[in-house]
Amino acid sequence: GVALVLAAIILDAIAYRRLPQQKQAGMKGIVLSVLCGVLMGFFYRFVADAIAPWVPAEGAQAGVQVLQAGKLSPYTAVVFFSLGILLSNFVINTAIMWKPFVGEPVPVREYFRGSALDHLWGIVGGMIWQVGMTLSILAADKATFAISYGLGQGATMVAAFWGVFIWREFREAPAGTGRLLALMFIGYIVGLALIIAARVMV
Question: What does pTM read for this prediction?
Answer without folding.
Answer: 0.74
